[in-house]
Specification:
Elements lengths: L9 H5 L2 H19 L4 H34 L3 H64 L7 H15 L7 E7 L5 E7 L14 H5 L2 E7 L2 E12 L2 E10 L2 H11 L2 E12 L2 E8 L15 H13 L8 E6 L3 E2 L11 E9 L1 H6 L9 H25 L8 H14 L14 H41 L12 E8 L7 E7 L4 E9 L3 H16 L11 H20 L6 E9 L4 E7 L5 E3 L5 E3 L3 E2 L13 E4 L5 E5 L1 H4 L10 H12 L4 H16 L8 E8 L2
Parallel strand pairs: 3-9, 15-18
Antiparallel strand pairs: 1-2, 1-5, 3-4, 4-5, 6-7, 6-10, 8-10, 11-21, 12-13, 13-14, 14-15, 15-19, 16-17, 16-20, 20-21
Helix pairs in contact: 2-3, 4-5, 4-10, 11-12, 13-14, 16-17
Length: 700
């Protein structure tokens, strides 16, 4: 222990830099005082130099004091070990907790806003659906458009049927006169909305339907606006839900999210910008006048929400802004001086359940997180360097781990470390042995996967034999088909059945699901189809009865063989070449397209429900006459459901446009062009469904 009664001699004091700094500062101060009588500038310079000397002396004194405290504090080895353990253990943990806390706050803020806006969009969509159903009533009963009693009864029935859980739905039906004034036919609301009566409808609402969040003065609504044209009269049908306590209770029940909304507006006052903020409590409708809430009431509101959760599920608060549309101008609040603020509370359990959810984070927030991560890494490295001073020599167990690693590198996966310890190093050796055994198991698993892959390749080769090897030549019919599986084996199939030189059957089907099970079911169904006897001729009505009977037999066949969730869609076409006709039956499949030479496109929709869903179901057979050059395109849903990198589907409209553009080419050329277009559309995205196309052309 150093002596505590040290005394400084004059000689020691003269060797101290602090002594000379203090002495120099005092001399400079006195000199500046004397020179101040002659020049103010000299006085200022002298005072500045003296101040620098005093500051340097103080810094030196603090440095010496710190060294003396360090020597006294770390004189005992126990204190040094405690300090190093705290520095290498507690400081990184504190940094991790701080970083995790900041990440949770940022994630909670973005997640709560995302959930809040998603719920608003969901309610808006449901409100739009109810509006469309009400408009359908007006279209079906045009003579009742001005009968409020009839409309009130039917509108309320629609609300109870389609949106029984949505609170405070208000309905308005009105016309607008030449001056733009609303002439109400029906105003059904659980609240007092006199402010909407005898008002002017903005021009943009007179021309466009709307669905979303709307602000009118200081009142917020989820609004659905629809234009209904009945004969020569223009009607407007509006549904809206105000931002009140029932709506927030609905949000809390659906998303476990507590919301509190306020409106702020920046105004110009005397040439300066002043922020005027008015909080709207929404605990009761108050017309156009905003309800002012004090900060104390806001805190009470938050405490009440917090008490509704368990102590470990404490809700996290966040403040965000979101855009709404202005009733009068059609502008969003982001382009005006008005802001809509939300104070959201989201429990920790909701955050944990949504950790995998993508949420939008601004670039500035990302940069901040990166900076904090870099800072954490630097401090962690510093703590490792400090901790190296207290690391002991490597133990025998670590050496054995090194030897075991070398054996693994040589390929000796059966090597095991002898474990003779029961401490953490022994557990580490056990973990190494477990890892070695796991590697062996993984190698066996890889071998099994390779075997399964080879079996799937064999299954694919077998399945290819079920597809037609050649195109039959039947009087007046030119054919070409192709199937592109999404996996090794396909659930789609197509086949040609030449029953005679004048009669050709073409079948295209899609089995629910993918993989081996769908392929086996496809093989069974195709075998049942090929079991038909050949026909020499098909008299009038005989072919129709044959198709109807065949579809019913196939339906019962699938129903007996499969589970309830398994079914198949199929389109069966029978071409009568000598009569230039096609008779078909569509069992829940994509409707084939009949493309005439004049460019008209007609979907072939006659048929019935999917095969295998019900034991007995009726099927109807369609009969269409074909002109020379007409095309019949049969395809599966994989064609129209193909998506690009943006998630946009190829769609039936693009399919029709391509067929019309290429209709003068041969069926094989059209199929080639279609597959090239789908491949270019997908932009390298993985194929999610099988793609099958069969095109037939009626020749002279």
């Amino acid at each position: 222990m150093p002596a505590g009664n040290e005394t400084f001699t004059w000689r020691q004091l003269k060797r101290s830099p602090m002594f000379w700094l203090l002495a120099g500062g005092m001399v400079l101060y006195c000199l500046a005082t004397v020179l101040g009588f002659m020049s103010v500038d000299l006085y200022a310079i002298g005072r500045g130099a003296a101040t620098l000397c005093f500051l340097a002396a103080g810094a030196w004194a603090l440095y010496r004091l710190g060294r003396r405290l360090k020597d006294r504090l770390f004189y005992r080895v126990r204190n040094r070990v405690i300090f190093f353990y705290l520095f290498t253990g507690f400081l990184p943990l504190a940094l991790v907790l701080l970083l995790a806390f900041l990440i949770v706050l940022i994630f909670a803020s973005n997640l709560s806003l995302f959930v809040f806006q998603s719920e608003l969009r969901n309610i808006s969509f449901r409100l739009q659906t109810v509006n469309a159903a009400m408009a359908e009533i007006l279209y079906n009963h045009p003579d009742k458009a001005d009968d409020p009693e009839f409309l009130l009864e039917n509108f309320r029935t629609v609300i109870v049927t389609r949106a029984p859980d949505l609170p405070d739905i208000s309905t308005m039906l009105y016309r607008v006169d030449e001056r733009g004034t609303m002439q109400h036919i029906l105003l059904d609301s659980p609240l007092d909305y006199r402010s909407f009566q005898d008002e002017f409808l903005p021009d943009w609402l007179q021309e466009l339907p709307y669905s979303g969040t709307l602000i009118k003065n200081f009142s917020l609504f989820i609004y659905s606006h629809n234009l209904v044209r009945i004969e020569d009269q223009q009607y407007y049908l509006d549904l809206f839900i105000p931002f009140r306590e029932p709506l927030f209770n609905h949000l809390l029940a659906n998303s476990n999210l507590s919301a509190f909304v306020s409106i702020s507006e920046t105004v110009q006052m005397s040439g300066t910008r002043a922020q005027m903020i008015s909080y709207q409590a929404f605990n009761g409708f108050r017309g156009q006048k905003p309800a002012i809430v004090t900060p104390e009431e806001l805190r009470d509101h938050q405490r009440a929400r917090s008490k509704s959760h368990d102590w470990w599920d404490y809700p996290i608060n966040s403040a965000n802004t979101f855009d709404v549309t202005d009733w009068f101008t059609f502008d969003t609040t982001s382009s005006t001086q008005r802001r809509i603020w939300t104070n959201l509370q989201i429990p920790l359990t909701t955050i944990v359940r949504n950790l995998a959810t993508r949420t939008a984070v601004s670039e500035e927030v990302v940069q901040l997180l990166l900076f904090l991560i870099y800072l954490f890494v630097v401090l962690q490295l510093a703590s490792i360097v400090v901790g190296m001073f207290i690391i002991r020599s490597v133990t025998l167990s670590v050496r054995q781990l090194s030897l075991g690693t070398e054996e693994i590198k040589k390929g000796n996966l059966n090597y095991r470390i002898p474990v003779k310890r029961s401490d953490e190093l022994g557990e580490l050796s056990n973990s190494f042995n477990t890892m070695s055994a796991g590697i062996v198991a993984l190698l066996h698993e890889v071998a099994d996967k390779q075997r399964i892959k080879r079996e799937l390749e064999i299954a694919r080769e077998v399945q290819q034999k079920f597809f037609p090897k050649f195109t039959p030549s039947v009087c007046g019919i030119q054919l070409h088909g192709r199937c592109l599986p999404a996996r090794e084996v396909s659930g789609d199939f197509f086949d040609y059945l030449p029953l005679s030189d004048r009669l050709l059957d073409v079948v295209v089907g899609d089995i629910s699901g993918k993989g081996i099970s769908a392929a086996l079911l496809m093989a069974s169904l195709q075998s049942a189809i090929r079991a038909q006897p050949p026909l020499e001729h098909a008299a009038d009505g005989e072919n129709v009865r044959r198709l109807t009977t065949l579809m019913q037999v196939l339906n019962r066949h699938l129903y007996r063989l499969t589970t309830p969730e398994k079914f198949a869609t199929m389109c069966y076409l029978s071409f009568l070449g000598d009569q230039a006709r096609v008779q078909y039956c569509n069992a829940g499949h994509e409707s084939p397209l009949l493309v005439r030479t004049d460019g008209s496109v007609t979907p072939l929709t006659e048929g019935g429900t999917v095969l295998g869903a019900f034991p007995e179901t009726p099927f109807e057979v369609g009969d269409v006459r074909l002109n020379p050059g007409d095309l019949v395109i049969t395809y599966t849903d994989g064609v129209v459901d193909s998506v690009n990198r943006q998630g946009e589907e190829f769609g039936e409209e693009r399919l029709v446009d391509l067929i019309l553009a290429e209709r003068r080419r041969t069926p094989e050329q059209i199929v080639d062009r279609l597959f090239e277009t789908i491949r270019a559309w997908s932009e390298g995205s993985p194929q999610h469904d099988d793609i099958t196309v069969v095109i037939a052309r009626q020749q002279e």
